[in-house]
Amino acid sequence: MAQTKEMIGGIETFEEAMALLEARMDADTLAKLKRIRTRDAVITIANAAMLCTPDRIFINTGSKEDGAFIRREALATAEEDALPMANHTIHYELKDEQGRITDRTYYLAEPDEKVSSLANRIDRGEGLVDVQERMGGIMKGMTMVVGLYMRGPVGAPASNPSLQITSSLYVTHSAEMLYRNRFDDFDAEVERLGYFYTNIHSQGLNRAEDLPNARVYMDRHDQTTYSINCTYAGNTLLMKKGNHRFSVDKAVKNRGNELSEHMFITGIEGPGSRVTWFAGAAPSGCGKTTTAMAGHQFVGDDLAQMWIAEDGTVRSINPESGIFGIVEDVNWEGDPALMPLLREEGTEVIWSNVLIDEDGLPQWTGNGDGNPTKGRNFQGEWEAGMVDEKGKPVPVSHPNSRATLVASALANYSPASEDPKGVETSVITYSGRDADTMPPVWVAKSSDHGVAIGACIVSAATATEVGAKGVKRAPWANAPFIPGALGEYMDAQFAFWANERIASGKRPLMAGLNYFLTHKARGGESTKLLGEKRDVKVWLAWLERHFHGEVRGIETPIGILPKYEDLKALFTKILDKPYPEELYTKQFSLYVDNIVARIDLQNDAYGKEEDIPARFFEVLKEQKEGLLALKESFGVVVRPEMLTEKTAA
């Protein structure tokens, strides 16, 4: 039996719930409702109906008929428009809601409850009153759509049952592509796991003047999210990042035994056709989808639920079954596996905030497919040369434009995505958008050093968060989704990766990735990348071989770097292109002052947090002392050949 939820509509018993719903449902919908055996779910549905007062209730069982109704109604309500390419539609958010509204997103917290220093909080009692006031009657004239989903394969230890209630057909359509509608399995999964997440959303009247009153509330006590007057999927489809927050909470409480991470999952094929599974963290807009697609067997590009199995392996599942991917700079050169789905008929795609040109074709910044002169985009009618009210050029598409599609459409999709045992995960990577400091790839000396790599991610601010600017820290690429104190989360990371239950020889290798280094950062003039996006295939291949002990590396204070000859051979084998030693030297030299400044930044920032584990500061001290010793011996720039005598397995 799941936990009792807050009765926001005043319905407290199953009998009251059924009486209300029987009076408001047609015969077909009532028949669907009676198939739901989880009484708390029925009570929650009744409370949402009582509070939001929709004209109609529709229960989506995931059947073909229900799916057809949802797609039809998304067009009928103009939340989506059909495009000439079959099965492609376009959805536009409000001009000023093109990303997560972090300034209006709150945790409902009890007075003594710790909340992340990077998050907003509101007294739980006050917040629930606000929910009731803002959501009261918000679905008048609309249909309330109810869906029962699983975040992960049915039967997996780390999957999460999730109840979605929304008045948006676009949100429902997106959920059908991104998550597993498991209407018939939901009750048994709730009984097995003992809980379910709840998400209640309405876009309201979808007016620009209502956006200042938009809110996202997350109630950790009830594991319930409320989304009010929002249209962007990151604020509305809260099975995604809203429920991810609850899963992070759950993992921290289950210290050392599971993790919930902002990570891709992909399989890299090595010699002898073996498959080595990777999971990797990167902030939104920092190449996570591109890296995931670089793998030979795709499981996920955004989220990962992880646990230690009985055989001592680390296992990962993707709670999602689709892709909600940023399309800026997605093109045939860097994303050859994804582009056919975006440019050829057959795959169902929901576009958001791209330009639709005069021929009805989606266009976006960096696609390499031509230069449109007119069309409609995120801000209305567009033509080449337009500027905004501040005189800045209006881009072809918003930087946070997205494409939503089912993962099974990918040519490299892996059936392992639906395996409840998860995939055995052997390599963990952490990356951000780092233009000037860290090398393209390096391996942590130990699990503690690996945790430090994750804690020290920095990134340029991206368009996924409204109002974000500049360069900022992005711990584990997960900080916006950590409900509790950062110290508790870091402690859970140390405990998990050092857990003695991980079998000998099965402990994942932990590494840093960075393919955003620029020529300017290494003595040139250009701000272009020092290398190409597709080079990540080589970095991943080297990590795969390093995990299996087939290549050695150069030991440094920050970790282990690849040797030139190994990378040169992989560039030839995998990308069929030369890899000049001069480029290797630029990419893998240690710019000591830059790295030390980065360490000082992290020391200062974490020094202001409560209860950060002492081990973290010890790792940073060890690295800094080692770097300063190198500087004393070799100067401010330490080239790899200076350290070739110090190699590591």
Would you kindly provide a written description of the structure presented here, covering whatever features stand out?
With 649 residues, this protein is of the alpha+beta class. Helix content is 30%, strand content 23%. The protein contains 18 helices and 34 strands. Strands 1, 4, 5, 6, 7, 8, 9, 10 and 11 form a 9-stranded mixed β-sheet that branches. Strands 12, 13, 14, 15, 16, 17, 25, 26 and 29 form a 9-stranded mixed β-sheet that branches. β30 (553-556) and β31 (559-562) form a beta hairpin. α14 crosses α15. It is globular and about 80 Å long.
Summarize the structure.
The chain is of the alpha+beta class and 649 residues long. It contains 18 helices and 34 strands.
Q: What tags apply to this protein structure?
A:
649 residues, 34 strands, alpha+beta, nine-stranded mixed sheet, 18 helices, globular
Total strands: 34
Average pLDDT confidence is 93
The major β-sheet equals: 9 strands, mixed
User: Helix amount, in percent?
Assistant: 25-40%
Q: Kindly report the oligomeric state of this protein.
A: single chain
Q: Roughly how many Å apart are the termini?
A: 50 Å
Secondary-structure topology with pairs:
Blueprint (H helix, E strand, L loop, with lengths): L13 H11 L2 H7 L5 H14 L3 E5 L3 H13 L4 E2 L5 E4 L13 E5 L10 E4 H12 L7 E9 L8 E7 L2 H10 L1 E2 L4 H8 L3 E6 L12 E5 L4 E5 L4 H4 L4 H13 L4 E4 L1 E7 L5 E7 L6 H6 L3 E4 L3 E5 L5 E4 L4 E5 L12 H5 L5 E4 L2 E3 L4 E2 L10 E4 L2 E4 L18 E5 L16 E9 L9 E3 L3 H9 L2 E3 L10 E3 L12 H12 L11 E5 L22 H12 L5 E4 L2 E4 L1 H12 L5 H8 L1 E2 H16 L6 H21 L2 E2 L8 E2 L1
